[in-house]
Write a structure and sequence with these properties.
Blueprint: H1 4-7, E1 17-22, E2 25-29, H2 40-47, E3 54-58, E4 64-72, E5 77-84, H3 87-95, E6 100-105, E7 108-112, H4 114-119, H5 125-129, H6 135-138, H7 143-156, E8 163-168, E9 174-186, E10 189-198, H8 200-213, E11 222-223, H9 224-240, E12 244-252, H10 255-262, H11 264-281, E13 287-290, E14 295-302, H12 308-321, E15 324-325, E16 331-332, E17 336-342, H13 350-366, E18 372-375
Parallel strand pairs: 11-13, 17-18
Antiparallel strand pairs: 1-2, 1-5, 3-4, 4-5, 6-7, 6-10, 8-9, 9-10, 12-14, 12-17, 13-14, 15-16
Helix pairs in contact: 10-11, 11-12
This protein binds guanosine-5'-triphosphate.
Guanosine-5'-triphosphate is lined by residues 218, 251-256, 259, 264, 267-268, 271, 293-294, 365, 369.
GO molecular function, one term: diguanylate cyclase activity
Protein name: diguanylate cyclase
Enzyme class: transferase
Length: 376
C-alpha cells in the first residue's frame, strides 16, 4: 500500500482519520488508523460506501464510528473520513434495533426505540418519551423491586441478574418481560438502559411444564412431589395463624381386585371419582394430593384436636355418600381405609407426622379395612 504522503499529500492535512479506497480496496490512508485497517467489519463497510453517505460501524473493540464518504472523481475513488460517533449516531443506531430498549433516569424515559413503543402498544416513540415515569408499565407489584434494582445499578454499575416480570402495555394487556439492565453515560450523566424481550410464550410454557410436573394427570390433583414440597410451608403458615393441623391418608381397599375384575380403565375411573369427592368434601384451605397408586393425602387445619376423629369420620362419610358408577353404568361398592394423625407443634417433622399417619393407615387395613384409625 502506498502511503498517503506519497500520492495524496492533502490527506495528511486532514485532522480526521481518512482513507482513500476503490471498491473496498484501500489505496492510501493518513496516520492514526493503526489496527483498524485489519478490521473486517470496517473493510466490508468501505466496500458499501456511497458518495455523500454516512454509515455507522462498530470496530472490533466495540467502538462506534461514523464513516462519511465523498467521491474523488479524478481518482475514481472514495475518500472516507472516520469520525468518532456522536451521541446522535448512537441514537440512530439503536433507534432501529429490533430489540425493545428504553434509556431512563429514575424511570423518566430519555430515549427509546420503535420496538419498545410497539411492544407496549404506544402510538409512537414520542408518546413513550412524554411519560413522566415508566411506573405504569412496570406495575405496582414490581415497583418496589424496580426501585431497589435502580439503586443497585447506580451504586455498582450492574445488576447481576436477568429478570422476568409481568409488565403492562397501554392497551391493558400484560406481557412477561425479560429485562436486561445496564448503566450507560447519557448526555454526560449516568442513566439506565433496559433491554426488554417479550417472553410471554416461553413463560406460559414454563408455567405449563411446572403445572404438569406437580399434577397427577389422572385425577387433576396435586401429585406426591407437590404434596411433599408444599407440606412444610403449608404447616408453617397454618401454625403461624394458630391453627391445629391434621394429616389424613386414604387408601382404596382391595383396589387390585377392582382392576383385576373390571379392568384398569374402571380402576382409573374409581380413582377419578375419589379425587372429585375429596375436592368436594374438603375446604379450599386443604393440601390435597394423590401420593401413590390408590393412596390420597390430605393435610388440613382443624379447629381443635378433639375434633380429629370426628372430622375424619365426616370426610369418610361424605366421600362415600355418592356411590361410584362407571362410565358404562357399572355400580361398584368402594370402601377405603383412613389413617389420621395430628401435627404436634414444636416437636414434629414432616417425615415423623407422615410415618404416624402411615402407621395409622396400616392399622386400619390390618383391622379389617373400611375404617378410620387415629394416632394422636
Ligand atoms: N387402574 C389403576 N390402577 C393402579 C394405578 N396405580 C396403581 N394401580 C394399581 O393399584 C393396585 C394396588 O394394589 P395393592 O397395593 O395390592 O393394594 P389393594 O389391592 O388396594 O389392597 P389393600 O390396599 O391392602 O386393600 C395395583 O394393582 C396397581 O396396579 C392407576 O393409576 N390406575
Amino acid at each position: 500500500m502506498q502511503s498517503a504522503a506519497d500520492t495524496n499529500p492533502w490527506m495528511s492535512w486532514l485532522p480526521e482519520k481518512a482513507l482513500l479506497h476503490r471498491r473496498g480496496q484501500i489505496l492510501s490512508h493518513n496516520l492514526g488508523l493503526g489496527g483498524l485497517l485489519e478490521d473486517a467489519n470496517l473493510l466490508s463497510s468501505l466496500g458499501r460506501c456511497q458518495s455523500g453517505e454516512r454509515q455507522l460501524v462498530v470496530d472490533r473493540d466495540g467502538v462506534l464510528w461514523c464513516l462519511s464518504s465523498q467521491a474523488v472523481p479524478e481518482q475514481e475513488a472514495m475518500l472516507t473520513l472516520m469520525l468518532p460517533a456522536a451521541h446522535q449516531d448512537l441514537q440512530q443506531l439503536i433507534a432501529h434495533l429490533p430489540t425493545a430498549l428504553v434509556v431512563h433516569r429514575w424511570f423518566k424515559p430519555l430515549f427509546t426505540n420503535q420496538a419498545f413503543a410497539d411492544l407496549f402498544h404506544f402510538d409512537s416513540v414520542s408518546e413513550v418519551l412524554e411519560l413522566d415515569s415508566l411506573r405504569s408499565i412496570i406495575g405496582e407489584e414490581h415497583w418496589p423491586m424496580a426501585q431497589e434494582n435502580y439503586r443497585t445499578l447506580m451504586k455498582h454499575g450492574r445488576l447481576d441478574k436477568i429478570q422476568v416480570e409481568e409488565h403492562h402495555a397501554v392497551n391493558g394487556t400484560r406481557l412477561q418481560a425479560q429485562l436486561v439492565d445496564f448503566v450507560l453515560n447519557w448526555d454526560g450523566e449516568p442513566a439506565v438502559c433496559t433491554l426488554v424481550s417479550n417472553v410471554s410464550t416461553q413463560q406460559a410454557k414454563i408455567e405449563q411444564y411446572k403445572r404438569m410436573a406437580f399434577t397427577d394427570p389422572l385425577t387433576g390433583l396435586g401429585n406426591r412431589r407437590r404434596f411433599f414440597e408444599h407440606s412444610e410451608g403449608f404447616i408453617q403458615r397454618s401454625a403461624a395463624q394458630g391453627s391445629s393441623m391434621m394429616l389424613l391418608l386414604l387408601d382404596v381397599d382391595h383396589f387390585k381386585s377392582i382392576n383385576d375384575q373390571h379392568g384398569h380403565p374402571v380402576g382409573d375411573e374409581v380413582l377419578q371419582h375419589l379425587g372429585n369427592r375429596l375436592v368436594q368434601c374438603v375446604d379450599s384451605e386443604a393440601l390435597l394430593a394423590r401420593i401413590g397408586g390408590e393412596e390420597f393425602a390430605l393435610l388440613m387445619p382443624v379447629p381443635a384436636m378433639s375434633l380429629l376423629a370426628e372430622r375424619a369420620e365426616r370426610i369418610k362419610q361424605e366421600i362415600g355418600a355418592e356411590p361410584f358408577v362407571s362410565y358404562h353404568g357399572l355400580q361398584l361398592p368402594i370402601t377405603f381405609s383412613v389413617g389420621v394423625t395430628r401435627w404436634r407443634p414444636g416437636e414434629d417433622s414432616l417425615p415423623a407426622i407422615y410415618r404416624r399417619a402411615d402407621n395409622a393407615l396400616y392399622r386400619a387395613k390390618s383391622m379389617g379395612r373400611d375404617r378410620i384409625e387415629c394416632i394422636y
